[in-house]
Amino acid sequence: MSLNKAMIIGNLGRDPEMRYTPGGQAVTQFTVAVNRNYKGQNGEWQEETEWFRIVVWGQQAERAAEYLRKGNKVYIEGRLQTRQWEDKEGQKRYTTELVANQVTNLERRSRDEDGDPGPVTGSAPAGADRPTRPARTDEPAGDKLDESNFDDLPF
Prior knowledge:
Shape: globular
Number of domains: 1
Mean pLDDT: 79
Largest sheet: 5 strands, mixed, barrel
Number of strands: 6
Structural class: mainly beta
Helix content: under 10%
């Protein structure tokens, strides 16, 4: 038996960025900061921040892009996925992302003029796990998805 499941609660580090694949599938990407407090060797409390790259697909991606904003506290549940590519100098690059199947906005404040807090919640339908993206040799480094690479995605 195998299990690949991750759950985090943290704050958005930037506004979500949504794109569409050539097939019309929405994909949204953003980062989440998760803080951890611990006592150091000197006995004083210290804080450590871990950053996670989040990828959301489908209708949930559209809702995330519409309602989430930098600084929002969110609960994310999904699976970890590592991608690999070579940069222009031929160096292998890697990135690990949390591919979300549930995104819940934990903010109580209203984000729009109608007073609707705009909850982003729900799970992907059964069987909605996206296939792992094939390794690319020309994929750019960085935090942003390059939509020109969507042409050969397997969906």
